[in-house]
């Protein structure tokens, strides 16, 4: 179709005298093209391969004759090739990737326990001081509650839950990036993305998405084909970003390691890390599956190929990585979360304490959402937390805790174990925890990401599609998990 | 590494014809780039035909310092970055070669002409159809072998090529030695070692560019030889293509492109041939 219209346009532009000549020439070219087509049919892909190999062989020979290298450098280069052969090999590539991922998560979860405890202890001490300060000022009780129980507590949650894992996870991730491992990951995943009808570079943009989905979506600019770029944009949000990792890490340690905060057993951390790895793998699978579905329905087409440059392995500058990842990323993400968490804390507190008809606003909204929430194995408060967490996913857990606290009996959060009791009191089962994590993985993108999608696509429709497709997957999968659990009576 | 994976199988042609009216042709925006062929020809060919101004293109792999060289030669301050794929559109600047005004075009970095990326198409279409007076291929001296793939491919299209062996400083650091004169002899084109960042070798490069566009040097570009089967097919097609493929385009190269079955290139050729009539008939 498109080629037809191209011809039409060509003809229209040619002055009448030129037409005859043009048709003649086109015929001649077509004759040659026909010959080429015949040869192609007989030989298949072999021609392209042969031509390519010929070029490579010639290039290799010329450069071999002309370039002479010092001995140590050659051996160094061979070493890189040897390492790449292992890292991107069929047999070891994927296990190595999963192992590295698992190791990083384990280190993050296991290592985050101590500073997390330390911080929450410090903050509860600070809260006491703050309370005393308010009573010293003789301030009204509502003001104290709004500021201390509303704003301060949500800030504490954000800091003590998020800071330690981030401070461990970011530097480790940056080290891998510096080392040059990420392009190798993309290389390994390339085949899978091709199979899904998407662009291989989507593996890279997805890897960026693990840092921040908005950044991941901006990075889809490296994908040239508009079709494949759209697929990459629409499915980027499935991989958990740094704002959502703390939720995954916290809930999975709650789920897997009972009383992990009291006795940080390495086994509990390991199984929690394993669970997070499974979830990450699952999110990549969903991303691939949705890409495949899109390439078969809304965005049909053939994947284009690309060259991926594997940069040399470099010894990471550890100190610089530490400084950079802490200042550029950790502090940045934390600051963003704090900015959002403070007003959100105030809003939640007001909603939880202003009553209409004997019940708080928060309760009304949660009760209204509850039927839908229960149908997919969650509850009204969780859904509300996700909706209020739209500006930044980091604050979903703090909002949820605050909502539960304002309705529950326990008032002080001292440890993860106490949180666990609170959740059980609220009727959580392992399915709730699992669905909470799945919903967090798959649900609508955060506000920043949606804005970025709009900027990149320039279309309200595709932005809405990004939100709807993800939310639909989240609801569907949570529903299926819940139903299966009910059917198998394992609730 | 799997070589066949590096070069792609062509995808279906992506064209956005309807959005490309006569009036806004000169405006480039990303989705339209691949189809801006005609705009290229209009904006780049006419100066060549007028022969008042020379056009020299800078081509090469991504991240070899084309933009740095471009800035050094033109005195412009185009943003240079350290990541592949920075230059997606072509940048133009003018440069003075011994009193002659030369338009320098900075093409997007590509690894191969056999790709189906937008950058690849822009670079290839420019080299094939805009017929610049010379092409300076900028290569990374630290990995000459990989860069030579593109060089050999461009040499199939045009003999008016200078090789700029850039990043010589880095090569020296890596203890690599390149026999420049031997490379020159093998490729049959001038090879100028440079370090664009520190400005080394730029004067030599400039005078080589001047010599080439004035015809003071002639080149004997390296010929790639393929297997007997392919060579036979090429020569058969060449006979048919020779009468129609003129205007500096090599029939051998067109035959090769037809063999590799790149549909976007075939579209380009058809338009090019159609366009020849316009140029001849119009007083434009």
Written description of the protein model:
The complex is a heterodimer of chains A (491) and B (284). In chain A, helix 15 crosses helix 16. Chain A is elongated, with a radius of gyration of 28 Å. Chain A folds into 2 domains: 2-67, no CATH class; 93-487, no CATH class. Chain A is mostly helical. Chain A has a two-stranded antiparallel sheet with strand order 2-3. Mean pLDDT of chain A is 76; it is low at 1-21 and 259-264. Chain A has 20 helices and 3 strands. The longest helix of chain A has 45 residues, at 93-137. Chain B has 284 residues and is α/β, with parallel strands linked by helices. Chain B folds into 2 domains: 35-224, Rossmann fold (3-Layer(aba) Sandwich); 227-284. Helices cover 43% and strands 14% of the residues of chain B. Chain B contains 11 helices and 7 strands. A 6-stranded mixed sheet of chain B has the order 2-3-1-4-5-7, with helices on both faces. In chain B, helix 2 runs parallel beside helix 4 (118-130) and helix 9 packs across helix 10 (251-260). The N and C termini of chain B lie far apart (50 Å). At the A-B interface, helix 1, helix 2, helix 3, strand 1 and helix 4 of A face helix 1, helix 5, strand 6, helix 7 and helix 9 of B. Strand 1 of chain A pairs antiparallel with strand 6 of chain B.
């Amino acid at each position: 179709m498109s080629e037809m219209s191209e011809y039409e346009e060509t003809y229209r532009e040619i002055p009448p005298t030129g037409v005859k000549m043009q048709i003649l020439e086109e015929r001649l070219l077509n004759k040659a093209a026909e010959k080429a087509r015949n040869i192609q049919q007989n030989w298949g892909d072999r021609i392209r391969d042969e031509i390519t190999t010929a070029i490579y062989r010639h290039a290799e020979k010329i450069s071999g004759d002309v370039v002479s290298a010092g001995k140590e450098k050659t051996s160094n280069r061979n070493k890189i090739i040897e390492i790449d052969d292992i890292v991107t090999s069929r047999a070891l590539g994927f296990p190595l990737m999963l192992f590295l991922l698992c190791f990083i998560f384990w280190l993050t979860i296991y290592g985050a326990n101590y500073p997390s405890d330390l911080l929450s202890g410090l903050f509860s001490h600070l809260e006491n001081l703050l309370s005393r300060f308010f009573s010293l000022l003789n301030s009204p009780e509502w003001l104290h509650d709004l500021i201390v129980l509303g704003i301060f507590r949500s800030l504490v949650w954000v800091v003590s839950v998020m800071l330690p894992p981030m401070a461990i996870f970011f530097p480790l991730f940056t080290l891998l990036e510096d080392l040059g491992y990420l392009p190798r990951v993309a290389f390994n995943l390339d085949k899978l993305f091709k199979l899904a009808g998407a662009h291989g570079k989507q593996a890279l943009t997805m890897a960026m998405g693990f840092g921040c989905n908005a950044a991941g979506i901006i990075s889809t600019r490296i994908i040239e084909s508009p079709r494949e770029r759209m697929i990459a944009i629409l499915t980027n949000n499935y991989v958990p970003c740094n704002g959502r990792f703390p939720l995954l890490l916290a809930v999975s340690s709650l789920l897997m390691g009972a009383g992990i905060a009291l006795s940080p057993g390495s086994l509990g951390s390991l199984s929690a890390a394993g669970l997070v790895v499974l979830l990450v793998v699952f999110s990549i699978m969903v991303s691939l599956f949705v890409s495949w579905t899109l390439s078969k329905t809304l965005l049909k087409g053939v994947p284009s190929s690309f060259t991926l440059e594997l940069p040399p392995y470099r010894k990471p500058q550890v100190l610089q990585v530490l400084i950079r990842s802490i200042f550029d990323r950790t502090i940045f993400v934390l600051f963003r979360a704090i900015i959002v968490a403070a007003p959100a804390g105030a809003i939640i507190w007001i909603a939880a304490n202003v009553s209409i008809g004997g019940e708080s606003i928060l309760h009304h909204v949660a009760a209204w959402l509850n039927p839908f929430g229960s149908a997919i194995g969650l509850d009204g408060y969780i859904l509300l937390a996700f909706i209020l967490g739209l500006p930044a996913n980091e604050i979903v857990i703090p909002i949820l805790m605050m909502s539960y606290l304002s309705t529950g009996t326990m008032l002080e959060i001292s440890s993860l174990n106490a949180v666990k009791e609170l959740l059980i009191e609220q009727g959580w089962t392992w399915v709730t925890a699992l669905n909470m994590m799945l919903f967090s993985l798959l649900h609508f993108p955060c506000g920043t990401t949606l804005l970025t999608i709009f900027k990149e696509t320039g279309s309200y429709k595709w932005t809405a599609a990004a939100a709807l497709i993800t939310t639909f997957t989240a609801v569907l999968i949570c529903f299926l998990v819940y139903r299966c659990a009910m059917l198998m009576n394992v609730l | 590494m799997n070589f066949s994976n590096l070069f792609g199988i062509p995808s279906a042609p992506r064209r956005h014809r309807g959005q490309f009216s006569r009036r806004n042709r000169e405006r480039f925006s990303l989705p339209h780039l691949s189809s801006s062929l005609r705009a290229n020809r209009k904006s780049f060919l006419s100066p060549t035909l007028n022969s008042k101004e020379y056009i020299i293109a800078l081509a090469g792999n991504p991240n070899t310092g084309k933009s740095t060289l471009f800035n050094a030669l033109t005195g412009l301050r185009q943003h240079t970055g350290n990541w592949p794929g920075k230059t997606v559109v072509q940048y133009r600047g003018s440069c003075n070669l011994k009193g002659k005004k030369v338009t320098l075009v900075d093409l997007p970095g590509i690894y191969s002409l056999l790709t189906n990326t937008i950058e690849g198409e822009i670079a290839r279409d420019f080299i094939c159809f805009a017929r610049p007076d010379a092409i300076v291929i900028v290569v990374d001296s630290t990995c000459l072998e990989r860069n030579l793939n593109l060089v050999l491919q461009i040499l199939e299209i045009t003999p008016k090529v200078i090789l700029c062996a850039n990043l010589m400083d880095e090569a020296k650091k890596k203890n690599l030695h390149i026999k420049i004169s031997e490379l020159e002899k093998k490729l049959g084109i001038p090879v100028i070692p440079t370090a664009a960042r520190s400005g080394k070798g730029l004067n030599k490069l400039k005078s080589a560019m001047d010599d080439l566009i004035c015809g003071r040097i002639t080149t004997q570009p390296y010929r790639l030889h393929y297997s007997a089967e392919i060579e036979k097919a090429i020569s058969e097609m060449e006979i048919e293509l020779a009468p129609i493929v003129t205007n500096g385009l090599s029939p051998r190269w067109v035959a090769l492109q037809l063999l590799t079955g790149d549909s976007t290139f075939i579209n380009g050729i058809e338009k090019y041939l159609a366009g020849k009539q316009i140029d001849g008939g119009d007083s434009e």
